[in-house]
Design brief:
Layout: E1 6-9, H1 17-34, H2 43-53, E2 59-67, E3 73-82, H3 89-92, E4 95-102, H4 111-126, E5 132-137, H5 140-149, E6 152-163, H6 169-182, E7 187-191, H7 199-212, H8 226-239, E8 241-249, E9 255-264, E10 270-278, H9 287-302, E11 308-314, H10 318-327, E12 330-341
Parallel strand pairs: 4-5, 10-11
Antiparallel strand pairs: 1-2, 2-3, 3-4, 5-12, 6-11, 6-12, 7-8, 8-9, 9-10
Length: 348
């Protein structure tokens, strides 16, 4: 009976082991449904990463489990918002990021509505500035649920993959050589920690690159400071992630472009390629291709066992998709971002 299901907040730092087990069981079941060929992350590493994420000073996170009398997490909802410490807070305080899932056996019975209304009630008290929820959706039941809510599809996105066995290494090496030839006065740096002399300009280049991405119908603006970058570097060390940044520095000392990757020894089959961008005034010189090529060559040298590189792109991000498509990236997992204005009428 759905009436016997209780919704409670899951606090990672204080949760008993039974709740951790319920959380892991649910998360892993959803992962297998969404991407069955992608190996699961080990529970201890997953736990460590979640504990670090919940301590982040610039983002507030809340997570709720819908527990059956037998202790199974039939549903899960997590919501994150920027805190007043975030430099983007004034621009984004209206926006909450929602992830909501219900196990197949419990769908179509109103549990999603209950979870959503619980989240909205909590936000009304604890985060009253939130006026919109943004939610990524992969599965068809989630799309139907968003349709019933009257949520608007705001951005078409995808997880794209490049399998190492399919890479044209001769082309990659050509891109790297050609990029260096066209930019003789540009220095390329490969680091895990951004040098202090570059951190300010790097943060400005990072901010510009982040805001070059299409956000569709989602109203947001991102500002990244040197302090945030240092916090992120510290979090990588705490979670065991190996974060590699390749960036270009012009003769005048300005950071012109960057790309970053994350690698976990616990998931040795893949590398996650995150932000890549070139500042507007330095475009047209092949820096994007240079950075992407050097990133792949770095992965080949450091992680020869990697099977594929994962990245996320908006379907409307034509400049980056042109480079990725030429390299052989293929769409693996379509993701639709929906925008839901608050309040939402209750019901089923």
């Amino acid at each position: 009976m759905e009436s016997d299901i209780k919704i409670l907040e899951f606090r990672p730092e204080a949760a008993p082991e039974a709740l951790w087990t319920a959380y892991f069981d649910h998360s892993e079941a959803m992962h297998r449904e969404i991407d069955p060929q992608d190996p699961l992350l080990g529970r201890e590493r997953h736990r460590a990463m979640l504990l670090v994420a919940f301590k982040a000073p610039y983002v507030s996170r809340r997570l709720y489990l819908a527990l059956t009398p037998g202790g199974e997490a039939a549903g899960l909802a997590s919501v994150s918002t920027e805190t007043p410490r975030s430099p983007s807070y004034q621009d984004n305080k209206h926006l909450g990021n929602l992830n909501l899932s219900v196990l197949p056996g419990y769908r179509g019975r109103g549990l999603g509505w209950r979870l959503l209304n619980h989240v909205i009630s909590e936000l009304a008290v604890k985060e009253p500035a939130v006026a919109e929820l943004m939610s990524p959706v992969v599965l068809e039941p989630g799309k139907k649920f968003c349709g019933k809510l009257g949520a608007k599809m705001a951005l078409a996105h995808a997880e794209n993959r490049l399998y190492v066995k399919d890479i044209d290494w001769a082309m990659v090496e050509h891109w790297a050589a050609e990029g260096r030839r066209r930019n003789p006065g540009t220095t390329v740096l490969t680091v895990g920690i951004i040098p202090e002399e570059d951190i300010k300009d790097y943060s400005e280049a990072y901010t510009e690159a982040m805001n070059q991405q299409p956000f569709g119908e989602i109203s947001m603006k991102i500002t990244v400071t040197p302090e945030q970058i240092r916090v992120g570097e510290k979090e990588c060390l705490e979670t065991g992630a190996e974060d590699t940044v390749i960036y270009t520095r012009e003769a005048n000392g300005a950071v012109s472009g960057l790309t970053e990757t994350a690698y976990l020894k616990d998931s040795p089959h893949k590398v996650r390629q995150m932000l890549t961008g070139v500042r507007l005034k330095y475009r047209g010189r092949g820096l994007g291709k240079l950075l992407k090529a050097l990133m792949l060559l770095e992965i080949r040298a450091k992680h020869p066992g990697v099977k594929y590189v994962v990245t996320g792109n908006a379907d409307s991000n034509a400049p980056m998709l042109a480079i990725n498509n030429a390299l052989g990236f293929k769409k693996h997992l379509p993701i639709l971002f929906y925008k839901l204005k608050l309040p939402v009428p209750g019901g089923r």
